[in-house]
Design goal:
three-stranded antiparallel sheet, alpha/beta, about 270 residues
Amino acid sequence: MIRFDRFPQGKYKAVTLSYDDGRDYDRRMIEIMNRYGVRGTFHLNSLRLGKPGHLEPSEISTLFAGHEVSAHTVNHPFLNLSPTETIAAEILNDRLALEEIVGYPVKGMSYPYGAWNNDVVTVLRAMGMEYARATSAHGSFDMPSDFLVWSPTCHHRDMLEYAHKFIDLQMRHSKMALLYVWGHSYEFENDQNWQQLEQFSQLIGNQADIWYATNSEIVSYMNAIRQLRCSVSGHIVHNPSAISVWFSVNGAAVEVLAGEMKKLDSLYNGKQ
């Protein structure tokens, strides 16, 4: 039986971090994350770049190399209290400015103040946005049902607690598990607890069974899984996407390369 339960390289665990506002403390955060191979997404307000306490536009591409730059609106408004025109302008203009800086499409964001409603989500969907992170943590390692209302596992104040749970997690039910941590880098400075990020990264980083990904990489991968074309028998799978996709057949990890038509007969051994 085919199960869509694997991340790249057949892993079933993934970790991503998500941080807002583009503050100058992101520099210290990136240095710690890079040391342990932890990756994440940084949501920036383009109008605030270059202002006191914030990053300079000229350093963004180099600083966040290997990570992702994502939108956070131009002016950081309450989108749930804004007219449709403001919602669209805030997001599109932020994307436009950030794309000029980083040189790739920006298709995701985080909600300022964590504020959203169904009208905001409708606008995002119409604009082709692929994901948007909220701030209400669910405390689980479940994948989201809707990436435009993507809740994290926890705020970083609880990151060590959840990191220990995640490391100890066993693959009992053939299920993808995602540890998603969010916050603001300035909070580490305000609370003088940078050692918490250091301990978390040391604990969770450089693990052979974990995929370290950006927000957009997770979305792109899950979209590729959804695009897989399976025969009625389940013995043939076609991957029309541009990236390799993994899943399991009767518990065995299987990779289907980009564009590949793969026959799975030998993996069934007479079992469905």
